[in-house]
Amino acid sequence: MGGIADDVLHGLRRIVSREPAASPVAELLRYGAASAAALFVDFATLVLLTEFAGIHYLASAAVGFSLGILVTYFLSVRWVFASRRLASVPVESAVFLLIGIAGLAINHIVMFGLTEAAHLPYAVSKVGSAGLVFTFNFIARKTVLFRVSAAPRG
Protein backbone atom coordinates (compact mmCIF):
# COMPACT_ATOMS: atom_id res chain seq x y z
CA MET A 1 0.00 0.00 0.00
CA GLY A 2 1.04 3.57 -0.23
CA GLY A 3 -0.06 7.14 -0.30
CA ILE A 4 -3.71 7.64 0.56
CA ALA A 5 -4.21 4.11 1.92
CA ASP A 6 -1.34 4.59 4.38
CA ASP A 7 -2.76 7.94 5.45
CA VAL A 8 -6.19 6.40 6.03
CA LEU A 9 -4.73 3.51 8.04
CA HIS A 10 -2.62 5.90 10.10
CA GLY A 11 -5.68 8.03 10.80
CA LEU A 12 -7.75 4.99 11.82
CA ARG A 13 -4.99 3.78 14.15
CA ARG A 14 -4.95 7.18 15.85
CA ILE A 15 -8.74 7.17 16.28
CA VAL A 16 -8.89 3.70 17.83
CA SER A 17 -5.73 3.97 19.93
CA ARG A 18 -6.06 3.83 23.69
CA GLU A 19 -4.62 7.30 24.10
CA PRO A 20 -7.03 10.23 24.44
CA ALA A 21 -7.84 11.97 21.18
CA ALA A 22 -5.37 14.56 19.95
CA SER A 23 -7.70 16.75 17.88
CA PRO A 24 -11.24 18.10 18.10
CA VAL A 25 -12.27 15.99 15.10
CA ALA A 26 -10.88 12.82 16.70
CA GLU A 27 -12.65 13.76 19.94
CA LEU A 28 -15.94 14.17 18.09
CA LEU A 29 -15.50 10.83 16.29
CA ARG A 30 -14.58 9.07 19.52
CA TYR A 31 -17.43 10.73 21.39
CA GLY A 32 -19.71 9.50 18.62
CA ALA A 33 -18.41 5.95 19.12
CA ALA A 34 -18.73 6.22 22.91
CA SER A 35 -22.24 7.59 22.52
CA ALA A 36 -23.15 4.76 20.16
CA ALA A 37 -22.05 2.24 22.81
CA ALA A 38 -24.03 4.14 25.44
CA LEU A 39 -27.06 4.38 23.13
CA PHE A 40 -26.95 0.61 22.61
CA VAL A 41 -27.05 0.05 26.39
CA ASP A 42 -29.70 2.76 26.79
CA PHE A 43 -31.95 1.51 23.97
CA ALA A 44 -31.61 -2.16 24.91
CA THR A 45 -32.52 -1.37 28.51
CA LEU A 46 -35.48 0.75 27.36
CA VAL A 47 -36.91 -2.01 25.19
CA LEU A 48 -36.18 -4.86 27.62
CA LEU A 49 -37.72 -3.10 30.62
CA THR A 50 -40.71 -1.83 28.67
CA GLU A 51 -41.51 -4.95 26.65
CA PHE A 52 -40.49 -7.73 29.02
CA ALA A 53 -40.81 -6.20 32.48
CA GLY A 54 -43.90 -4.10 31.67
CA ILE A 55 -42.38 -0.87 33.01
CA HIS A 56 -43.67 2.44 31.63
CA TYR A 57 -41.50 3.63 28.74
CA LEU A 58 -40.40 6.87 30.47
CA ALA A 59 -39.26 4.98 33.61
CA SER A 60 -37.44 2.47 31.40
CA ALA A 61 -35.90 5.36 29.48
CA ALA A 62 -34.57 6.88 32.71
CA VAL A 63 -32.91 3.61 33.75
CA GLY A 64 -31.42 3.05 30.30
CA PHE A 65 -30.24 6.64 30.04
CA SER A 66 -28.58 6.37 33.46
CA LEU A 67 -26.69 3.25 32.42
CA GLY A 68 -25.69 5.03 29.23
CA ILE A 69 -24.28 7.92 31.28
CA LEU A 70 -21.99 5.48 33.08
CA VAL A 71 -20.72 4.07 29.79
CA THR A 72 -20.18 7.54 28.35
CA TYR A 73 -18.36 8.82 31.43
CA PHE A 74 -15.97 5.89 31.54
CA LEU A 75 -15.15 6.14 27.84
CA SER A 76 -14.95 9.94 27.91
CA VAL A 77 -12.32 10.11 30.63
CA ARG A 78 -10.36 7.08 29.44
CA TRP A 79 -10.48 7.38 25.67
CA VAL A 80 -12.29 10.39 24.19
CA PHE A 81 -11.04 13.64 25.66
CA ALA A 82 -7.36 14.56 25.95
CA SER A 83 -7.70 17.31 28.54
CA ARG A 84 -9.68 17.64 31.73
CA ARG A 85 -10.48 20.95 33.37
CA LEU A 86 -11.24 19.70 36.86
CA ALA A 87 -8.64 18.02 39.05
CA SER A 88 -11.23 16.57 41.41
CA VAL A 89 -12.75 13.34 40.11
CA PRO A 90 -15.80 13.60 42.42
CA VAL A 91 -16.53 17.15 41.21
CA GLU A 92 -15.95 16.16 37.59
CA SER A 93 -18.25 13.16 38.00
CA ALA A 94 -20.95 15.32 39.59
CA VAL A 95 -20.81 17.89 36.79
CA PHE A 96 -20.85 15.09 34.19
CA LEU A 97 -23.93 13.69 35.92
CA LEU A 98 -25.64 17.09 36.05
CA ILE A 99 -25.12 17.52 32.32
CA GLY A 100 -26.50 13.99 31.91
CA ILE A 101 -29.58 14.90 33.94
CA ALA A 102 -30.16 17.89 31.65
CA GLY A 103 -29.79 15.51 28.70
CA LEU A 104 -32.28 13.15 30.36
CA ALA A 105 -34.76 16.01 30.66
CA ILE A 106 -34.36 16.77 26.94
CA ASN A 107 -34.72 13.06 26.19
CA HIS A 108 -37.95 12.79 28.17
CA ILE A 109 -39.49 15.95 26.73
CA VAL A 110 -38.77 14.81 23.16
CA MET A 111 -39.87 11.22 23.81
CA PHE A 112 -43.06 12.29 25.56
CA GLY A 113 -43.89 14.79 22.83
CA LEU A 114 -43.25 12.36 20.00
CA THR A 115 -44.94 9.43 21.72
CA GLU A 116 -47.96 11.12 23.28
CA ALA A 117 -48.58 14.09 20.98
CA ALA A 118 -47.34 12.72 17.64
CA HIS A 119 -48.43 9.14 18.47
CA LEU A 120 -45.14 7.58 17.41
CA PRO A 121 -43.95 4.32 18.98
CA TYR A 122 -41.69 4.98 21.99
CA ALA A 123 -38.71 3.31 20.24
CA VAL A 124 -39.03 5.69 17.29
CA SER A 125 -39.31 8.60 19.72
CA LYS A 126 -36.08 7.46 21.39
CA VAL A 127 -34.26 7.48 18.07
CA GLY A 128 -35.66 10.96 17.44
CA SER A 129 -34.34 12.26 20.75
CA ALA A 130 -30.90 10.62 20.46
CA GLY A 131 -29.40 13.09 17.97
CA LEU A 132 -30.53 16.14 19.90
CA VAL A 133 -29.30 14.74 23.21
CA PHE A 134 -25.98 13.68 21.64
CA THR A 135 -25.38 17.21 20.36
CA PHE A 136 -26.32 18.84 23.66
CA ASN A 137 -24.19 16.44 25.73
CA PHE A 138 -21.11 16.72 23.51
CA ILE A 139 -21.14 20.52 23.45
CA ALA A 140 -21.86 20.85 27.18
CA ARG A 141 -19.27 18.27 28.26
CA LYS A 142 -16.59 19.53 25.88
CA THR A 143 -17.16 23.13 26.96
CA VAL A 144 -17.50 22.61 30.71
CA LEU A 145 -15.33 19.57 31.45
CA PHE A 146 -12.94 18.61 28.69
CA ARG A 147 -11.28 21.64 27.20
CA VAL A 148 -7.96 23.20 27.94
CA SER A 149 -8.34 26.11 30.32
CA ALA A 150 -7.27 29.45 28.99
CA ALA A 151 -3.96 30.77 30.23
CA PRO A 152 -4.30 33.21 33.13
CA ARG A 153 -4.41 36.80 32.01
CA GLY A 154 -1.84 39.03 33.51
Describe this structure as you would to a colleague.
It is a single chain. With 154 residues, the chain is mainly α. The protein has one domain (4-144). Helices cover 77% and strands 0% of the residues. The protein contains five helices and no strands. Helix 2 (24-52) packs antiparallel against helix 5 (122-144). The chain is globular, with a radius of gyration of 18 Å. The termini are far apart.
Provide a brief overview of the structure.
The chain has 154 residues and is an all-alpha fold.
Q: Main traits of this protein?
A:
154 residues; mainly alpha
Number of strands: 0
- Please tell me what the overall shape is: globular
- Whole-number total of structural domains: 1
Order of helices and strands: HHHHH
The gyration radius over C-alpha positions equals 18 Å
Uncertain parts:
none
End-to-end separation in angstroms reads 51 Å
β content, as a range? under 5%
| Number of helices, where a helix is a run of at least 4 consecutive DSSP H or I residues | 5
Please identify the structural class as seen in this structure: mainly alpha
Helix content: over 70%
Mean pLDDT: 86
